[in-house]
Write a structure and sequence with these properties.
This protein has 8 helices and 10 strands. By secondary structure, the chain is of the alpha/beta class. The protein has one domain: P-loop containing nucleotide triphosphate hydrolases (Rossmann fold). The strands form 2 sheets. A 6-stranded mixed beta sheet has the order 6-7-8-3-9-10, sandwiched between helices. Strand 9 and strand 10 form a beta hairpin. The longest helix is centred in the middle third of the chain and has 15 residues. The termini are far apart. The protein binds adenosine-5'-diphosphate (ADP) and magnesium ion (MG) (2 copies).
C-alpha cells in the first residue's frame, strides 16, 4: 500500500530557513489538505518535494514506499509515482500537449513497454471529455497561450494520464471560476482510490467544499501547527487564523 512520509523536513531559500521541520504521513486512500496564511511556506513545501533547485533541503527525510525521495532527481521522482503539478514546464515551444503527455507517460515505463499511440489517444480523448476540454487542446503547444483555467485543467489531465501514487496540488483553485473549479474537483475526486494519496495545498476553504479531505493541517511559520478533520477547514473559513495563533501563542 502507498505510504508517503515527510520526516522533520527543513528547507531554506537563499540561506533563509522557511520550512522548520515538517512531519506528515499520507497513506493510499487519504486526502490531506494543508491550509495556512500567505507566506507561511506552503509552496516552499511543494517545491522542496518536487526537487526545485532553488530550495535547499537542510534536514529531514522524505520517503515514498520506503524509497528516499530527496536523493532522486526531478524525473526520478515522477517515475517513482510522485505527481507535482508544478514540475511541468510552464511553456515549451514546439511540443504539443499530446506529445508532451505521451513522452511523460513513456518515461515512467520500461523500454519496450511504451503505450501504443492508439491506446494513448483513446485514453487522452476520454479524459479530456471528462474535464470538458476542447479536443483541439491536444494539438496546441504546451501551455502556450493557455488561460489560467485551461492550465489547471491541463494539470489535472496530466495527473489522470500519469496515474501517480501521490499527488501534490498547490493552489489548484487559484484563478478558477466556479464551473472550472467544479470540473477540476470532479477530476480529482474521480482519481481518489485506495492506492493513491493526495496533498492539497490551498489558501481558501472553497476548494474543500468540492474535495472533502480526510485530514486538514494548518501551516504557520514553516511548521504544521494544528491537524484535524474537515471541520477544521470550516472553522478557519469562518473565523480566520487568529484563534489558532492565540491558542498556540504564536506571535508574528
Ligand atoms: P505560501 O505558499 O504559504 O504563501 P511560500 O512558500 O510561497 O508561502 O513563501 C514562504 C516564504 O518564503 C515567504 O516569506 C516568501 O517571501 C519566501 N520565498 C518564497 N519563494 C521565494 C523565492 N523564490 N526567493 C526568495 N524568497 C522566497
Ligand atoms: Mg503565497
Ligand atoms: Mg503558495
Amino acid at each position: 500500500a502507498t505510504h508517503f512520509k515527510i520526516d522533520g523536513l527543513k528547507a531554506a531559500i537563499e540561506g533563509k530557513e522557511i520550512l522548520k521541520g515538517i512531519n506528515l504521513e499520507i497513506k493510499g486512500g487519504e486526502v490531506h489538505a494543508i491550509m495556512g496564511p500567505n507566506g507561511t511556506g506552503k509552496s516552499t513545501l511543494a517545491s522542496a518535494l518536487m526537487g526545485h533547485p532553488k530550495y535547499e533541503v537542510t534536514e529531514g527525510a522524505v520517503t515514498l514506499d520506503g524509497e528516499e525521495v530527496l536523493e532522486m532527481g526531478v524525473d526520478e521522482r515522477a517515475r517513482a509515482g510522485l505527481f507535482l503539478a508544478m514540475q511541468y514546464p510552464s511553456e515549451i515551444s514546439g511540443v504539443t500537449n499530446s506529445d508532451f503527455l505521451r513522452s511523460a507517460i513513456n518515461a515512467r515505463r520500461e523500454e519496450g513497454k511504451e503505450i501504443s499511440l492508439i491506446k494513448f489517444i483513446r485514453q487522452m480523448e476520454g479524459k479530456m471529455k471528462e474535464l470538458e476540454m476542447n479536443p483541439e487542446f491536444a494539438h496546441r503547444y504546451l501551455n502556450e497561450g493557455f488561460s489560467g483555467g485551461e492550465k489547471k485543467r491541463n494539470e489535472i489531465l496530466q495527473m489522470m494520464m500519469l496515474d501517480p501514487k501521490i499527488v501534490v496540488l498547490d493552489e489548484i483553485d487559484s484563478g478558477l471560476d466556479i464551473d472550472a473549479l467544479r470540473i477540476v474537483a470532479n477530476g480529482v475526486n474521480a482519481m481518489r482510490s485506495e492506492e493513491r494519496g493526495f496533498l492539497i495545498i490551498t489558501h481558501y476553504q472553497r476548494l474543500l467544499n468540492y474535495i472533502t479531505p480526510d485530514f486538514v493541517h494548518v501551516m504557520m511559520q514553516g511548521r504544521i501547527v494544528k491537524s484535524g478533520g474537515p471541520e477544521l477547514a470550516e472553522r478557519l473559513e469562518n473565523e480566520g487564523y487568529d484563534w489558532v495563533k492565540e491558542e498556540l501563542g504564536i506571535v508574528d
